[in-house]
Design brief:
The chain is α/β, with parallel strands linked by helices and 338 residues long. Helix content is 44%, strand content 17%. The mean pLDDT is 93.
């Protein structure tokens, strides 16, 4: 059998509400030389039945069943069995516009020095309606993306197409960076290849309350901070301590792992900074991180991150009154000025 140009990598876990729209959008691509490899990652809703229905009518669909292992394991499984030289990501709750694959293949064919190409996106809500917020604009050129990567993720993960050989050479997705596996991957791929985004909005990215970015903000922020430390280690010619990790270590061990004092307190401040606009997290486990950050400030004499008192008001406005009271008490006890 002739190998397809593209392997579409789709991991599904309880996406029944949106899955048909996602599958329809893939099968409606104007570039049809692809295989769609779907990992049903232990879904407990109607996703398996939807997958089976589509697989029965389109021979390009290959289905893998497994107990729930998470996105990283699912994507690495797809990479291992992929037949296409290009791998296109897709999420089970998004929509790919018809020209997406055609435009991405054309770009990679014309730019052999580029290994990753994303697209601009249009955000939609849980009902599929375009959101009223200003559109998200990702940087286009490889040089701008390379400059932005140390501080931000300039790609929408489910919109990208990648060269499989470059992805395999980088080691695929790393399990320690669960919930920020894409950012860690971009940092490592940027050391091997050029990365760009198309200017067209070719992907509809859905925002919903069940998203990983909403449910795992704390783990995501911690992973991003550690991924940046690992990038610096590689850039300085030192071994990447996170190679082979299956989980991130306790924050208290980071000074020893990365070989200098103050790493843990710096990471803690970075994580807390990222929680200021996540009131649900701040009202819960985030308070423990804020308290530890304030202990760091008292011990070292450093400045606390700005905006903590404004976060009190934000908690109250989001109906987390008890969290607001607890945070205000913490700031008062540590004599943090308004």
């Amino acid at each position: 059998m002739t190998s397809p140009r593209i392997t579409v990598a789709l991991s599904v876990y309880n996406n029944a509400e949106y899955l048909a729209d996602a599958l329809d959008s893939i099968l409606a691509q104007t570039f049809g030389d692809f295989e769609l490899v779907i990992v049903d990652d232990g879904s407990t809703d109607h996703s398996p039945a939807i997958i089976d229905r589509y697989a029965a009518i389109d021979p390009r669909i290959r289905v893998i069943r497994q107990a729930n292992q998470g996105l990283v394991a699912s994507l690495n499984h797809i990479i291992a069995v992929a037949r296409g030289p290009y791998i296109a990501r897709m999420d089970g709750d998004d929509v790919a516009l018809p020209e997406r694959f055609a435009r991405q293949v054309a770009f990679l064919d014309a730019n052999p020095d580029h290994g990753v190409i994303g697209t601009q996106i249009q955000t939609i809500d849980a009902q599929g309606r375009r959101r009223s917020e200003p559109p998200v604009d990702h940087p286009l050129s490889a040089d701008v993306i390379a400059a932005a990567l140390p501080t931000a993720s300039p790609l929408c993960h489910p919109s990208v197409m990648m060269r499989r050989d470059v992805l395999e050479a980088a080691g695929g997705y790393r399990p320690a960076y669960r919930h920020c596996e894409d950012y860690d991957l971009w940092l490592r791929l940027a050391e091997r290849t050029r990365i760009a985004n198309l200017p067209e909005r070719l992907h509809l990215y859905r925002y919903s309350p069940s998203q990983v970015s909403h449910r795992h903000v704390l783990a995501q922020r911690y992973g991003v901070a550690v991924a940046r430390l690992a990038r610096v280690a590689r850039a300085e010619g030192r071994p990447d301590p996170s190679d082979g990790w299956t989980a991130l270590p306790p924050i208290e061990t980071l000074d020893t792992i990365f070989g200098r004092p103050g790493v843990a307190s710096d990471v803690r401040a970075e994580v807390v900074r990222g929680l200021l606009y996540a009131p649900e997290v701040m009202a819960g486990e985030g308070l423990t991180w804020i308290a530890a950050h304030l202990d760091d400030v008292r011990r070292t004499g450093s400045e606390s991150i700005p905006g903590l008192w404004r976060a009190v008001a934000r908690l109250a406005s989001h109906h987390h009154r008890l969290g607001a009271i607890r945070l205000a008490a913490l700031l008062t006890r540590h004599r943090i000025r308004r």
